[in-house]
Amino acid sequence: MGAILRLAEVSVAFTGAEGIHPVLQELDLEIARGEWVSLVGRNGSGKSTLGRVLAGLLPVSRGTVERADGRVQLVFQNPDAQIVGETVWEDVCFGLENLAVPPEEMPKRVESALGLVGLLPKKDAEVTTLSGGQKQLLAVAGCLAMEAETLVFDEATSMLDPESRARLLQVAEALHRAGRTVLWITQWMDEVAHAERVVALEAGRVVFDGTPEAFFYDGGVEGASDSVGASRAEDSVLEKRTPCEVLGFAPPYVVQVARALERRGVALRTRPLLPAQLGAVVR
């Protein structure tokens, strides 16, 4: 699999009343075609800025961004910020009209996109009647109708109820299985468990890049500050903390249970991330 997105020495800085504020600093990153990457980090780490750079919505201050063939589309945190049509059908058509898609092609593309996210039965519904989760699915449909190869979800579940969060995740997983590239920006650690790869940012730099298993189970993160403010000299156990913990996040409940079992001497065949995996690894 070749890289569909490549960043080389990318920096982004904003000028404010207090001077220049760096957000991303000399960042190198490659994302392979068809990969599912979870991007995590504390507030202000640069996650959303990176998502906008990858989607082509924000210019970089320094460095280069390469996008292979295929459109990159961003699903925002607030679904109301990205919907313009009065009805479900009209909203999906809006993006196609901006791309100057021939009118005779639109119905097929809109129906296909709405079918993939489960909103085809609501194609004539007014957008104001949709739930928050349905609005996010509508935003995804708009991206799919525009034939997006890569979908960037910028904390797209943060304003949703648990049922809607699960539904959006299911749709993203189905799209990923169909070959789409997914960049999933989140602070929900149970969502990170669905990824193939985790990239963690701290102060605009990559401080972890590896598997979810390593993120939740392995020892410390080079270059990341301790979330509780203790120095390494003051906290001898810091080296044993996982990248997830060093960055100030609590691991998913499944990981907490698995690690508690290990401390009690229970041997686990693998390191589970999802509920279905937990029962299968206990000997």
From TrEMBL:
Phosphoprotein listed as a keyword: no
Family assignment from sequence similarity: Belongs to the ABC transporter superfamily.
Record protein name field: Energy-coupling factor transport system ATP-binding protein
Gene3D superfamilies per record: P-loop containing nucleotide triphosphate hydrolases (3.40.50.300)
InterPro entries named among the record's database cross-references: AAA+_ATPase, ABC_transporter-like_ATP-bd, ABC_transporter-like_CS, ABC_transpr_CbiO/EcfA_su, ECF_ABC_transporter_ATP-bd, P-loop_NTPase
Single Gene Ontology MF annotation: ATP hydrolysis activity
Membrane topology type: Peripheral membrane protein
PROSITE patterns: ABC_TRANSPORTER_1 (PS00211), ABC_TRANSPORTER_2 (PS50893)
Main location: membrane
Pfam family, one: ABC_tran
GO cellular component assignments: ATP-binding cassette (ABC) transporter complex
Keywords per UniProt: ATP-binding, Cell membrane, Membrane, Nucleotide-binding, Translocase, Transport
PANTHER family: ENERGY-COUPLING FACTOR TRANSPORTER ATP-BINDING PROTEIN ECFA1 (PTHR43553:SF24), HEAVY METAL TRANSPORTER (PTHR43553)
